Design the sequence.
């Protein structure tokens, strides 16, 4: 696919990707609407539990499709795959930490993710890399004993 | 009521909460990239164990402090700490470059306080009568009102109307997940109990405004503020007479800020620029604007601070948030058992008036702390968000978990963060999404209740003077929008 040309197609970027995802989600919602929402008819008139979601999803699909057409004909923000890699790394490490928290506890999970964030953001100074450990300890202690929150 | 409410404030924790809130707000607002919305979303879980009054005062203190704090980096670095301070930077930075940074910040501070006081009085005067009027609203009226609010966000929210409409619909669709508000049928719950409560507001807010910011910074990784030379901050004085000379500008700017703030979804950037332009058009020294005119600093600051009180009017009286920050504050009110809406003043009048009075009185510590923080602020502006982002991530995980002590909410927060990142990178506005999420479910509920009442007849939506009036307003808004679009296309 070529870069933006007059009246032609632009290289897909963030807007195209986001709108494409929204359109796909709205379409999936419409397809699975009947299986995801069961109706128990009690003879009531007017809209049921499926009516509002159906209208909202159709509208979303329509406006997302319109935006997608417009996006494909205009300049888009480039994805920047290497930079996107950092975001994916961070998201994956957050997901891994969340998955691990029930096993290793809040402190280690939160501190780990904090250190990964610092590293991804380019921090290399040992003192600042150790800071998430201190913050996680303060938050864990304060949450458990100050706010009585049963952290894992 | 007012005296009883004032007595509620005679509590050391209220003062402590206000001071902590204002100081935190000024610091957070000063750091470019960290806004009041994120700060309040992250601080909500900290207030769980607090009484409602100090908890809300702390959060409102952050709001007030951050709006003023945004002007510090705008004046000293020409980098607005918050988007609403962009107008302040035009003349503020020009003043700072000629060695009048201290004076610019003082004008900004006094104008901020003026705008805040004015909007607080409007809030106190309008919110309760509006809530009392809304007590007469039935489901049809509430549905029309919410439709009007959603439409205003789409039409007048700024930027592309199509993008705003997409975001409102995304929010409304996200609000579908959970139990049906009328029949209790599970909708898009995938057979999971965790989904039956739907997406909780606070984890979504933390994801959209805190986690998304972390991901944005990971993507950009360039400092928002480079090695900018901060102009010297000389000792300076602003005399009362100088402020008095701009009283009309301050008043008009406050009126603009307050009444634009009442309209949902517009935020504080638009009124700040509107006030700036008005002040310039009224000024005898219009050519000085852009070169360091004190009125060019005061006008936008009065307006963007006046938005605080204005945006709280529909938030508290009708449960319709005025902007992203008030949507977060609405979430905080709900968590503390003070559900905003017509019943708030009837059921929790004492607490609400105590909060109003605290908002008004907090102008005093704002002035004192603001004056104290001018010089400290120079050092604060050097803090890069990346130094704070690991802490923000940890607080985001903690905050999302602590709402229901559930890891499911943390997954929701992470998902909202990824979506927020995509939307922000793709230049989609987040406030319409948030307001769509908040209003989507009650809009559906009111709509269906109204139709159940009328036996399925849509005539109920034109059956009362209130619904007719709201419908007329909707038509008027659409016509105004069309007229503006046509005029824009011609010019």
Sequence:
């Amino acid at each position: 696919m070529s870069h933006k040309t007059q009246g032609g197609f632009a290289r897909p970027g963030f807007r195209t990707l986001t709108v494409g995802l929204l359109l796909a989600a709205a379409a999936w919602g419409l397809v699975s609407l009947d299986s995801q929402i069961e109706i128990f008819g009690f003879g009531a008139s007017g809209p049921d539990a499926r009516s509002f979601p159906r209208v909202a999803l159709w509208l979303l699909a329509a406006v997302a499709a319109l935006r997608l057409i417009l996006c494909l004909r205009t300049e888009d923000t480039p994805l920047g795959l290497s930079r996107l890699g950092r975001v994916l790394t961070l998201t994956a490490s957050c997901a891994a930490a969340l998955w691990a928290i029930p096993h290793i506890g809040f402190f280690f999970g939160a501190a780990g993710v904090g250190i990964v964030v610092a590293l991804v953001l380019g921090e290399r100074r040992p003192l600042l890399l150790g800071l998430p450990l201190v913050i996680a300890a303060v938050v864990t202690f304060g949450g458990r004993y100050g706010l009585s929150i049963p952290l894992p | 009521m007012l005296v009883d409410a004032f007595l509620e404030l005679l509590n050391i924790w209220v003062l402590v909460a206000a001071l902590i809130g204002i100081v935190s707000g000024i610091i957070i607002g000063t750091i470019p990239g960290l806004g009041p919305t994120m700060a309040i979303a992250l601080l909500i879980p900290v207030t769980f164990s607090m009484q409602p009054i100090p908890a809300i005062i702390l959060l409102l203190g952050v709001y007030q402090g951050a709006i003023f704090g945004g002007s510090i980096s705008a004046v000293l670095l020409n980098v607005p700490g918050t988007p609403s301070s962009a107008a302040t930077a035009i003349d503020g930075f020009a003043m700072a470059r000629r060695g009048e940074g201290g004076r610019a910040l003082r004008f900004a501070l006094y104008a901020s306080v003026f705008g805040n006081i004015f909007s607080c009085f409007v809030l106190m005067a309008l919110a309760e009568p509006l809530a009392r009027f809304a007590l007469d609203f039935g489901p049809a009226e509430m549905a029309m009102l919410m439709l009007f609010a959603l439409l205003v966000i789409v039409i007048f929210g700024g930027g592309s109307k199509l993008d705003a409409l997409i975001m409102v619909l995304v929010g409304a669709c996200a609000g579908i997940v959970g139990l049906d508000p009328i029949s209790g049928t599970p909708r898009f719950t995938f057979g999971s109990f965790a989904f039956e409560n739907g997406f909780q507001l606070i984890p979504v807010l933390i994801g959209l405004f805190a986690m998304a910011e972390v991901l944005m910074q990971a993507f950009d990784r360039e400092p928002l503020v480079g090695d900018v030379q901060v102009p010297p901050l000389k000792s300076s004085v602003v005399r009362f007479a100088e402020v008095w000379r701009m009283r009309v500008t301050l008043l008009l700017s406050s009126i603009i800020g307050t009444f634009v703030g009442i309209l949902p979804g517009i935020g504080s950037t638009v009124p700040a620029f509107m006030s700036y332009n008005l002040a310039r058009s009224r000024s005898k020294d219009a050519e000085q604007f852009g070169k360091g005119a004190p009125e060019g600093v005061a006008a936008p600051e009065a307006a963007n601070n006046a938005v605080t009180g204005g945006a709280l009017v529909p938030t508290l009286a009708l449960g319709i948030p005025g902007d992203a920050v008030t949507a977060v504050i609405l979430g905080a009110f709900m968590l503390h058992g003070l559900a905003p809406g017509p019943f708030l003043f009837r059921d929790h009048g004492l607490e609400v008036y105590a909060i109003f009075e605290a908002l008004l009185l907090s102008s005093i510590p704002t002035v004192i702390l603001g004056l104290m923080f001018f010089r400290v602020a120079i050092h604060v502006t050097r803090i890069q968000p990346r130094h704070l982002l690991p802490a923000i991530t940890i607080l985001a995980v903690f905050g999302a978990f602590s709402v229901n002590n559930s890891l499911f909410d943390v997954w929701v927060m992470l998902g909202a963060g990824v979506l927020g990142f995509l939307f922000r990178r793709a230049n989609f506005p987040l406030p319409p999404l948030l307001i769509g999420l908040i209003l989507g479910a009650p809009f559906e509920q009111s709509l269906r209740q109204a139709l159940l009442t009328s036996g399925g007849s849509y005539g109920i939506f034109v059956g009362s003077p209130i619904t007719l009036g709201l419908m007329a307003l909707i038509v008027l808004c659409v016509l105004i929008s069309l007229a503006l679009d046509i005029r824009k296309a011609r010019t």
